[in-house]
Design a protein that fits this description.
Largest sheet: 5 strands, parallel
Radius of gyration: 16 Å
Strand content: 15-25%
Mean pLDDT: 85
Number of strands: 5
Strand order of the largest sheet: 4-3-2-1-5
Structural class: alpha/beta
Low-confidence stretches: 14-24
Helix content: 25-40%
Number of helices: 5
Order of helices and strands: HEHEHEHEHE
Shape: globular
Length: about 160
Amino acid sequence: MKLSITSLALTAALSMSLATAFAADKTIDSKKEAKNGYHQIHVVYHINEIKDATGALRNAKNHLNAVGDENIDMIVVTHSSGAYALVDGSMGEKDKEGKTLDFRDQIASLANRGVKFQICANTIKGKKIDAKKISEYAEIVPSGVAQVAELQTRGYAYVKP
């Protein structure tokens, strides 16, 4: 079977993301208090519609602010049209100054605070998303839906903004 360079790159990216997808950067203990009366938490934010991305990313920022960056292990999983939140320039709309709208700044800011971002390989393939335009902060996972369910089985709280 012949594989294209794109297929090989996607396969390599999938292997790397699977190896790191569940590696914990922080020790989170749901019994340990965080701040503002909250406890440490593992949480998955699920974005499957691009129209929900602005609110979801704002919710993620507010969640970090409330609990404290050091007290949360947050993963944002995207698929379907929601995956476009992790694709540079994909919105196609422009602001009043003519600048293309995208989520680069919000994604970078959240990633710098420890948030992990994942994008569905099925969506990349099905929507023919250019791999070069996928955010540098995004990990590719085989299936966004399966990833959300897997994270829930591992104790991640589910948030669907």
